[in-house]
Write a sequence for this structure.
């Protein structure tokens, strides 16, 4: 997904080259893993985690930041979730930066009166604890509008944090896109699951307003299994 | 390194040690301990360069020992540079 849009990935940790080599071979990692054993680059970026006492295994780790950097080194966007076990999915990055979604990602089309809304996820799979993206493409017949009280909410126990950015002000007839994100609970059972959401809106013409409406919808998503470390003997 | 832990990190270190010990032993980690561990780890977090700023220059060895920097890592539209804890845990 990222590669297709001209973005490569590289990862930095304080691990030794040897450890990274073993890890990359074991898990068939296709992108460069860079070794910063004295955390010098981690410090230079200003993300050295100073909460960890010297002597602990985690001493030297960074705060878990992902930077989308332009070829000239300028930061385009930062993706950061304070909990180090949470990460944004590649598909959420691609949706936000390029408006592209995975071919097999779930989408539904909702329809009421003058309004049609297509809502879809950025990808078909995610790990527990990851942030996935969703889009909503609104289409309104001419002469109708909806207000910025329009919301999309996932009242789903698997979603621990969510955002939805609707353009400010009433939206008049025509088409417009909106984006949102969902942070998945950690842990969640692996396997195929359903995310339940609600679209709430009120559509008005110049002559009248319809009553406020809420339409429930469901989007399937596959929660990928974690690699479970073997118990220490 | 016992005894060398700075005072202001001692409480956090105790939480991290207990979390690590339970995990390594395969014991149950309560939601409360997990939350304390995450809070201790993320206290006063920093996230480095902001959008619009330029990242520091870096040259680091990859798993094969080849030195890599932004110029040879980036794609035509950019690089997603991921900082993570360790591939070993």
């Amino acid at each position: 997904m990222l590669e297709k849009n001209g973005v490569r990935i590289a990862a930095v940790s304080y691990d030794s080259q040897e450890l990274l080599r073993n890890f990359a071979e074991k898990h068939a990692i296709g992108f460069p893993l860079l070794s910063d054993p004295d955390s010098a680059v981690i410090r230079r970026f200003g993300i050295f985690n100073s909460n960890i006492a010297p002597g602990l295994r985690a001493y030297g780790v960074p705060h878990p930041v992902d930077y989308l950097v332009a070829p000239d080194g300028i930061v385009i966007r930062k993706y950061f979730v304070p909990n180090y076990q949470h990460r944004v999915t590649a598909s959420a990055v691609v949706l936000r930066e390029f408006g592209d979604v995975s071919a097999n990602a779930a989408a539904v089309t909702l329809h009421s009166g003058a309004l049609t809304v297509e809502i879809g996820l950025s990808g078909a799979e995610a790990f527990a604890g990851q942030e996935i993206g969703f889009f909503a493409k609104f289409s309104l017949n001419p002469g109708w509008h909806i207000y910025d009280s329009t919301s999309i909410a996932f009242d789903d126990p698997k979603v621990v944090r969510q955002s939805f950015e609707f353009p400010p002000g009433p939206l008049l007839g025509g088409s417009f896109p909106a984006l949102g994100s969902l942070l998945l609970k950690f842990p969640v059972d692996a396997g195929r699951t359903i995310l339940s959401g609600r679209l709430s809106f009120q559509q008005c013409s110049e002559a009248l307003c319809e009553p406020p409406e809420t339409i429930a919808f469901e989007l399937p998503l596959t929660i990928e299994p974690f690699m479970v470390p073997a118990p220490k003997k | 390194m016992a005894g060398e832990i700075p005072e202001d990190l001692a409480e956090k270190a105790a939480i991290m040690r207990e979390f690590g010990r339970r995990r390594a032993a395969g014991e149950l980690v309560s939601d409360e301990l997990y939350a304390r561990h995450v809070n201790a780890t993320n206290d006063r977090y920093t996230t480095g360069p902001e959008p619009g700023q330029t990242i520091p220059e870096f040259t680091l060895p990859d798993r094969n020992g080849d030195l890599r920097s932004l110029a040879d890592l980036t794609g035509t539209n950019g690089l997603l540079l991921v900082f993570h804890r360790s591939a070993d845990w």
Summary: Chain A has two domains: 3-63, 107-224. Chain A touches chain B through 68 residues (CB under 8 Å).
